[in-house]
Design a protein that fits this description.
This protein is α/β, with parallel strands linked by helices. The protein is built from four helices and 37 strands. Helix content is 13%, strand content 24%.
Length: 347
Amino acid sequence: MGAAGFFRLDRPLTPAEVAEIAGARIDESRAGAAEIIIGVAPLDLARPGELAFYDRRRYAAALRLCRATACLLRARDLDSLPSGVIPLVTTEPHKAMARVMARLYPDSLRPHSLFSASGVSPSAIVHPTARLEPGVSVDPGAVIGPRAEIGAGSVIGPQAVIGPDVRIGRDCSIGANVSVVCALIGDRVILHPGARLGQDGFGFALSPRGHVKAPQIGRVIVQDDVEIGANTTIDRGATRDTIIGEGTKIDNLVQIGHNVVIGRGCVIVAQSGLAGSCELGNFVVLGGQSAIGGHIAIGEGAQIAAKSGVTRDVPAGARWSGAPARPVRRHLRGELLLDRLARRETK
């Protein structure tokens, strides 16, 4: 059985074309006239015809043995590149590689119909009052509820559920087994398989006689160019909306509680949890498994390290870590002092 290639190469590129796409400088003295790029690979596996990139010193040994046709790298690393490899010099090799891969494999940028079909599958269930613009694809088993609206170019994956009155913009990709209720979604949004949007939040009035469920009557608002990872859950608001700002990228297995407001361009890494009514400013970064307490505000541009527990407001531009989270330098000094104390106790 042959190995499957899941993404089709759009067309081969010359090293000069790669350099133009990447915004890189090509060393013409080492460029072969007939060389072409037909694929990409990591440094240690790349072969002639493939493009690699070098961005971290820990892979210096692999760079010295690289056999790729061309490599994106910084000028400071040129001396380590084998003579048979065409250097493409750039200040940001990783970002440059992303641009080139997008040109080589455009189908990889967003999920498409898993049934490789266009239009509405005969086995999909679309309510008569739902409105689908031309060019919408609906895969087998999907359910689209009453009065839902879906914009042109969007793809609804198999077994996805789009609830009543939901609005989905244009050129969106809704993955397999996604559920979207009580939500308004902008253009070019990607929801990866298993994501859940708009279910009621965890709201109860606690009492020794029993916990009273508080109705959640808000919505989820997802602005343009947001990407939400597999099995991430976003609760609808209680009395106000849960909002995900334009261009924000959310990893897999993230929990976002009711009334949360997330600004533009944020990055939230896997297994993070945001409790109800917390607010993130624009371009905040949350490391993996970070936890944000309820009703907490994190200022614009702040960065929270992985496994941190945030229990109070974070100023704009700050870098915090630890549990409870505090400024990185203070956290590291505290850890160092504890380690020294522990070493003394064991002597």
